[in-house]
């Protein structure tokens, strides 16, 4: 069964040997399935993500790409009737195991959502530090805030009004604030569920730039239905369709030389 | 599918080898405590309901044991000294005053709701909600005070003589104009239930889809025709619910009625005559009841009132819910 | 029917509906004007601070009734607000199950129970075993009236908090209970405060549940297990008495009551508006 050493290069029904798969993967999905009630939304997905890379997940709406990332920090199971099976490993540890506390896991796997969702009752400063404060972690809060805001490329724009309401920021700034908030607790993995879909092109470009820098320190999984964005921002790309992983590999290969006709149809805009 | 979920997890040996995470038990306890606390608060609602029924039944038990239910419900004699208790006079007063309030308030509140939602300029809409909130916020004892010293003299000196002159051939408007009585109680109840009925009707009318209205207007209907043909049929059940909810409030209203109904246990056809209502007799006699049987009889009246209002409110809530929740649910 | 005739009908119906607005305003204006004009004459510092004097003696006031009303309502809020708000949060968090639906329906039904009936319940629970009337019994009756409205109001406010906010908090590794309390409830808090203030205002105006629980008292009450005066019961007793002096006192007391209730309601609305503006 699946307790055997995970097949790194031959994952899924369609093996996709890629050059960067030599190191031990940071994230590994093995035969992952997920349901909402009786709807099977993710079917036997197996793939791996090396550390310090960016994986883009593309596919038409309802293909299961959001569900996949929501399994990675176990947000999926918060929906009533939601279930999952298979294995999902970070550094070799099965995070779906009952021994893993989802609350602990979510401190290691940060998430940025489709729409900016800063806490409306908190200031910019308090939003960044929310994970610290609410978890009761002590420390030099001011330093953490500055570091996180710098990493999220927001520091220069807000350093003079850290105690203003978070809602006084523009949409793009709010989204970078949410990134800073996620970065503050120093996650190893950052999940981004269509982080730029509610933003204008300039704000989007900033987020993409940011993703490039972030992969120096962590591993990024980004869901997008913007093909250009996937091509620009990611090292590897996975194409999902109807809950199945159709193909995954180096981004360049997926966009220039896809193996699967369905992938080709999608990246060339024939459907989706 | 559940079997595949079972078989696909890692074998126990592998899971045992995984590192333990720290601090979990404490947090799990906190999460459990939190949900236990919430369940306790939610359960409190059920406990309150249970306690209401139990306590009412308990206080009423001396009478319920001694008297046959039919005798109690249909009896017209109320004589605490001889321990004879019949509820019919009070039930009659409650029903007559509430229905009267309904007849007066329903057309006014429907008209007002239509005016606010369909006919007035948007700037007026927000202004109208203010007097409605004011009306709803005035304590009933203040309504009673106003009724006693303003409405009752007005009825006695102007309205009742006028009605007697013009419509006096009807048994409803016969008898001396006293002021205190069914008419006064019905009118004050009408004022009191107006805000409830109007604001719920407005809620219901707001859920009518704009397309419904526009379709009628696009066919060349006048504003009133659009309202009558497209809006009212859609909102009918909800407005009925609002009216019944108003009725429920009228049935249980105590202070204002007690102050203007005349407190005379008599069944009369005339609206000018003084009468008595279920809440009023409880208000007047309970604190000075002459013994467990008398207290029990008053509590039994309370139980009766409880059952009647419960029935009407349940019906009304269902009607309102069908209308206001219906479209949302189908859209979701 | 000709178009002119149809237009006329439409205008006439609009006019009729507008008339309904006037009909609704008439009693409101009359009531407010009378309470103010008749009540203002008797208002004085003494009226607000002195004990009531018997008929025939001049002076005196309703000081004990004001303090009584406020303390009964404070006690009721102490019981009613935590339970009502807690039940509301419960309904918002797990209100979609069978238990939740039952509890929501029960709360709806409870909010229609006549207040006098709740008075009998509190009588049976407190006055009978304690053998005397008490502020506590009155407060419990009022809290029972507050709980269902607060629960439904809180539920709706908590449900308005976007799900994404809750997810943002959980994704930061913040436990469920902290997320619920410090993010979800915290965000809905201004609305909850407004709802609570309105519930307090309503409780302050209640008479029927106090008639045979807190009863009345001609003197100051010092303990929650004593019979206690309240503004509303005082107004009722004075209004139905045969004496003009007491009628005058009833009007003045009614003005005091309306001012207290109005202050709370206006406070509630101002609070809601200020909070809404502060967040822009």
Task: Give a quick precis of the structure.
The complex is a heterotrimer of chains A (272), B (332) and C (280). Chain A contains ten helices and ten strands.
What does this protein look like?
The complex is a heterotrimer of chains A (272), B (332) and C (280). Chain A is an alpha/beta fold. Chain A has a single domain (24-267), classed as 3-Layer(aba) Sandwich (Rossmann fold). Chain A has helices spanning 65-72, 102-108, 124-134, 141-151, 155-158, 171-184, 201-214, 227-233, 251-256, 261-267, and strands at residues 25-36, 39-50, 54-58, 82-90, 93-94, 109-112, 189-193, 219-223, 236-241, 244-250. In chain A, a hairpin with a 2-residue loop joins strand 1 (25-36) and strand 2. In chain B, a hairpin with a 4-residue loop joins strand 1 (78-79) and strand 2. Helices cover 77% and strands 1% of the residues of chain B. Chain B has a two-stranded antiparallel sheet with strand order 1-2. Chain B has a single domain (70-331), classed as MetI-like (MetI-like fold), CATH 1.10.3720.10. With 332 residues, chain B is mainly α. Chain C folds into two domains: 3-40; 58-278, Orthogonal Bundle (MetI-like fold). Chain C is built from ten helices and no strands. In chain C, helix 6 (135-160) crosses helix 8 and helix 8 (176-204) runs antiparallel to helix 10. Chain C is globular. The N and C termini of chain C lie far apart (53 Å). The chains are: A alpha/beta (272), B mainly alpha (332), C mainly alpha (280). At the B-C interface, helix 3, helix 5, helix 6, helix 7 and helix 8 of B face helix 1, helix 3, helix 4, helix 5 and helix 6 of C.
Describe the main β-sheet of chain C briefly.
none
Helical content of chain B (DSSP H or I, runs of 4+): over 70%
Query: Unreliable runs of chain C, pLDDT <50, ≥5 residues?
Result: none
| % residues in beta strands of chain C | under 5%
Strand content of chain B: under 5%
Distance between the termini of chain B: 27 Å
Please give the CATH class of chain B.
Mainly Alpha
According to CATH, the fold-level topology of the largest domain in chain C is MetI-like fold
- Compute the average pLDDT of chain B: 86
Order of helices and strands of chain C: HHHHHHHHHH
Give the rounded overall mean pLDDT of chain C: 92
Helix-and-strand structural type of chain C? mainly alpha
